[in-house]
Amino acid sequence: MPRRHRSHSTEFKRQVVAEFQGGETLHALGRRHDLSRNLIRVWIEKAEAGALDEDVAAAEPMAEFGKWNTVFKRFRRWVKADAFYLMFKVLSDNGDFEYVMVDGTIVKVHRHGQGTKGGLRARPSGALAAV
Question: How far, in Å, CA of 106 to CA of 119, rounded?
Answer without folding.
Answer: 23
